[in-house]
Design a protein that fits this description.
Strand 10 (about 265), helix 10 (about 270-280) and strand 11 (about 285) form a beta-alpha-beta unit. This protein has 14 helices and 12 strands. It is α/β, with parallel strands linked by helices. The model has no long low-confidence stretch (mean pLDDT about 90). The two termini are about 35 Å apart. The strands form 3 sheets. Strands 9-8-7-10-11-12 form a 6-stranded parallel sheet, with helices on both faces. It has a 4-stranded parallel sheet with strand order 3-4-5-6, sandwiched between helices. The chain has a two-stranded parallel ribbon with strand order 1-2. The radius of gyration is 21 Å and the shape is globular. It has 2 domains: about 5-160 and about 340-365, Rossmann fold (3-Layer(aba) Sandwich); about 185-330, Rossmann fold (3-Layer(aba) Sandwich).
C-alpha cells in the first residue's frame, strides 16, 4: 500500500528487496497524493493498481473510503498486505486487510507520543494498525518496547527504519553541496505541513521566522507543503521578505541536497527527524511531542513546538554558541543502521514459509 510521497520513499527499499527474493510484490496506490510519480522512486517496474482516493479534510472518512476501494482487490491469492507508517491510506489498507481476512504487516510499527491529539489522527491510526497486524516491523528497540507494553498480538521484529535505507541509497546519487564562503549567510531550511501547525497555529511560527529574518541575517528557505490551502496561508504571511524564499515542494533528491547545505533545520516532518541526525544537521522540531524521541536522546534535535520565543531563542543559540552547534551537528544513527530492507523481507519469507508448512500439514492430516 502506498498513498503518499513519503510512503513511496520508505516502501521502495522493501519492494526491491522482496522482488530480489522472487516474491513478486505488487502495489496498490490509494491516490492520497494523486500525482505520485512511481518512476521517481524506482517503483514503476512493479505491477500496480491506482485508486481514486485523494486525501480529504476528514482523514477518518478517507480511511474508510480507501478500505472500501481496497477490499475487492484483495483476492484469495493475496498472502500478505504491507502498510507503511500512520497515514489514512495506511489505516484504510489495514482495515481492508483485517475485514477480508488478509494478514497485514506494519512497517514502522510501535511509534508513539502517547497523546491521541499530538499528532491527530496519526497516533490513533498507528495504534489501530498495531492492535491487529500479524507482522510488526519496529524500527528501534524503543518502538518494540511500546508494542510489548501494548500487548500487541503480532510477531515483533526490530528492523531499523526503512527511511535510513532510502537515505543511504540516495546519498551516492545527490551531489555534495558546494562549500560555503566565509561571507555567506547562514541558512535556515523550514518545512511545516502537519495538521497541528495549520491555520492559526502557524502564526507564531511565521512571527518567529519574520523576527529571525529581520534580526539575524539568516537566509530562510521555506519549502511549501503540497496542500494548496495550507501553502496559500503560508505565502500570505511570509511573501515579500528579502531574506525569505518560498520554495515549491521539492522532490526527494532536491530536498536532500537542500538539507545537506542548510545550517539549521526547522521542521515538523517525521522523515526530516530521521534524516537530519544521519546527515549531521541540527534540527529544531516544530512539535510539542514526537514519536521519534531517539533523535532528542542522541542530541541531534530539540523540540520547540510552535512557540515563537522558543524558536527564536534556540535558533539564535545555535548561531552564536559554537559548542552547542557542534554537539548537535555530529552525524548519528538513532533510528537504525539502514539495513531494514534486508531484515524485513527475511522475516516475511520466514513467516510465509511457516504458513505454507502449516497449510500443508492441515491438508495432509
Amino acid at each position: 500500500m502506498v498513498g503518499t510521497r513519503h510512503e513511496a520513499i520508505k516502501t521502495a527499499p522493501v519492494l526491491h528487496a522482496l522482488h530480489a527474493r522472487g516474491l513478486g510484490p505488487g502495489l496498490i496506490l490509494t491516490g492520497q497524493h494523486p500525482l505520485l510519480d512511481l518512476a521517481a522512486y524506482g517503483l514503476d517496474r512493479f505491477p500496480h493498481h491506482r485508486l481514486q482516493c485523494p486525501g480529504r479534510t476528514d482523514p477518518q472518512a478517507h480511511a474508510e473510503e480507501v478500505a472500501a476501494a481496497v477490499a475487492p482487490l484483495l483476492e484469495r491469492t493475496t498472502e500478505l498486505l504491507i502498510v507503511q507508517g500512520d497515514t489514512s491510506s495506511a489505516l484504510g489498507g489495514a482495515l481492508a486487510g483485517f475485514r477480508q481476512g488478509v494478514p497485514v504487516a506494519h512497517v514502522e510499527a510501535g511509534l508513539r507520543t502517547f497523546d491521541p491529539a499530538l499528532p491527530w489522527p496519526e497516533e490513533d491510526n498507528r495504534m489501530a494498525i498495531d492492535r491487529a497486524a500479524a507482522l510488526l516491523f519496529a524500527p528501534t528497540e524503543v518502538s518494540a518496547a511500546n508494542l510489548r507494553a501494548q500487548a500487541a498480538p503480532g510477531e515483533i521484529h526490530v528492523t531499523s527504519n526503512t527511511g535510513i535505507d532510502a537515505l543511504r541509497s540516495l546519498l551516492g546519487r545527490v551531489p555534495l553541496p558546494r562549500l560555503s564562503s566565509v561571507n555567506e549567510r547562514p541558512r535556515l531550511l523550514v518545512t511545516c505541513h502537519r495538521r497541528e501547525n495549520w491555520g492559526e497555529n502557524f502564526l507564531p511560527i511565521a512571527e518567529a521566522l519574520l523576527h529571525l529574518e529581520a534580526g539575524t541575517g539568516l537566509q530562510i528557505d521555506v519549502v511549501l507543503p503540497p496542500n494548496a490551502t495550507v501553502a496559500a496561508g503560508m505565502r500570505e504571511l511570509l511573501a515579500g521578505r528579502f531574506g525569505i524564499r518560498l520554495l515549491s515542494p521539492l522532490d526527494q533528491g532536491a530536498m536532500l541536497a537542500a538539507m545537506r547545505s542548510a545550517t539549521i533545520l526547522l521542521s515538523d516532518s517525521g522523515g526530516v527527524q530521521e534524516e537530519a541526525p544521519a546527515l549531521g544537521v541540527p534540527l529544531l522540531v516544530l512539535r510539542g511531542k514526537t514519536e521519534r524521541p531517539q533523535g532528542v536522546t542522541s542530541g541531534n534535535m530539540r523540540l520547540v513546538g510552535n512557540d515563537r520565543d522558543r524558536i527564536v531563542t534556540e535558533v539564535q543559540r545555535l548561531l552564536t554558541d559554537q559548542d552547542a552547534y557542534t554537539a548537535m551537528a555530529q552525524p548519528r544513527l538513532p533510528y537504525g543502521d539502514g539495513h531494514a530492507a534486508e531484515r524485513i523481507p527475511a522475516a516475511i519469507v520466514s513467516w510465509l514459509g511457516r504458513g505454507a508448512e502449516e497449510e500443508e500439514e492441515r491438508l495432509t492430516a
